[in-house]
Design goal:
Blueprint lengths: L2 H65 L6 H10 L2 H4 L6 E4 L5 H13 L17 E5 L3 H6 L8 H13 L8
Length: 177
């Protein structure tokens, strides 16, 4: 054999060796990226769950307010919200509200009167339904939340399913929105 053949053999073996090492490197890099992705997503999941538990605790506080009072007046709801310092402690919280079950025309008229007295509009959207679940209280009092006062959450399928679930189970239910 001449030296030229050896050169081709050495080149071929070198290329095969380089390819094997390169493929192994790619596999290790893929595993490293998967591990890093899992680490990041697990951390994010943990943060989200902790935040949800915190929000649940806030809601449990409001549950206590309603459980200890036969009728919660608007000023009591607003004072409790402000006393809890929720705006500063939970700045990412868009709002904490209370909805009420309105199942007949007399009750609907009574709620509409309360809403109008507080400067809000009537239960909306308009329409005949067997029952209504309007937002009666909502804090903080910003423009977006003021628009939501009187909104019948039962008028939307996703929210009405959440209301039904909560009524049936007595548990909180997170919406997909």
């Amino acid at each position: 054999m001449k030296w030229g053949h050896y050169a081709w053999i050495v080149l071929g073996v070198s290329l095969i060796f380089t390819t094997v090492i390169w493929l192994d490197f790619l596999e290790q890099e893929k595993k490293l990226q998967e591990t890093e992705f899992e680490f990041i997503t697990n951390g994010m999941t943990k943060q989200i769950l902790e935040k949800l538990k915190t929000h649940e605790q806030v809601l449990m506080g409001f549950h206590g307010l309603f459980a200890t009072s036969e009728i919660v007046e608007p000023h009591e709801f607003y004072n409790f919200y402000n006393l809890q310092n929720i705006n500063q402690r939970f700045p990412d919280n868009q709002g904490i509200g209370y909805i009420e079950n309105v199942s007949n025309e007399d009750k609907k008229n009574e709620i509409n009167k309360k809403l109008q007295e507080s400067g809000s509009r009537e239960i909306h959207p308009e329409g005949q339904r067997s029952q209504y679940f309007p937002v009666v209280f909502l804090m903080p009092e910003d423009e977006r939340n003021k628009e939501a006062i009187g909104f019948d959450v039962y008028s939307e399928q996703t929210r009405s399913s959440a209301v039904d679930y909560s009524i049936e189970t007595g548990k909180l239910h997170l919406l997909e929105k």
